[in-house]
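Format notes (please read before filing issues)

Several people have asked whether sequences and structure tokens are stored in separate files. They are not. Every record keeps both together, in the order shown below: the sequence lines, then the token lines. Line labels are part of the format and must not be stripped during preprocessing.
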Amino acid sequence: MTGTIDLHLTPLSGNIAAEVGVPIAGLLADDTTHAALRDALVEHQVLVLRGASPSLQEHIALAEIFGGPVPPQDQNPRHPDHDEICVFDSDGGYKADK
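Then the structure lines:
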């Protein structure tokens, strides 16, 4: 790995979470960026990609940066076109704290 990548991280709280200011295509660019993203997750524990609408392929590619995707538990809603993607949509009554 040569060089570093600026993910344009913005801390979102005092202890955890940061917003990533790089578009998804940029995050999928190369191994150096993947390493920076993994390091950011270790440091901030939660990464937010505000406003992102990844395609199914981008969603899986992002998951693979951190390891193999794990299918959702049976009680969780799955994406109709991809069994490894879990969909929580507030319009469908899902809330982050439930």
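For reference, the curators noted about this record: The first strand starts at residue 10 and ends at 11. The mean pLDDT is 88.
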